[in-house]
Fold this sequence. Notes:
Blueprint: E1 13-18, H1 24-36, E2 41-46, H2 55-62, E3 91-94, H3 97-107, E4 113-116, H4 129-151
Parallel strand pairs: 1-2, 1-3, 3-4
Helix pairs in contact: 1-4, 2-4
Amino acid sequence: MGEASVIQPLPQSVLFCCDHNAVRSPMAEGIMKKLYGMRCYIQSVGVKNDLEIDGFAITVCQEIGVELDRHRSRSFDEMEDWGDDLSSFDLVLALSPASQRRALDLTQFYHLEVEYWPILDPTGMGDNRESRLALYRQARDQIIERLTARFGPAME
Length: 156
């Protein structure tokens, strides 16, 4: 049986996570905020916070009207410093295997849904600017497809 796409209601809060909070999870956070606006509280974190927001991620999101240049990378460990508690999120969407493991470790004590979305990691791939941008666009578009399959078309 194939994966039937069942549109589900928007949760009150979503946390995206990936390895560094520099490419996939900030893209997902920005895109989801653009698609669904203020109807949902949306944040993102990384397993580690050792990289700044990626310039290619900024560029491909600007192409669809999503501004990421003010994004500040943060880790799971820093969440509480920012006033967020993992247990307060309704849904954690992990975009990398390492972040899925970390989220599952951290959520074993909470009743919290963790879903894994295998989004392409475009970093370090492509041998010139255009091929790299194409890979980042592919990751961006995978995120958009996943979001609209899960939560329905964008809200006006």
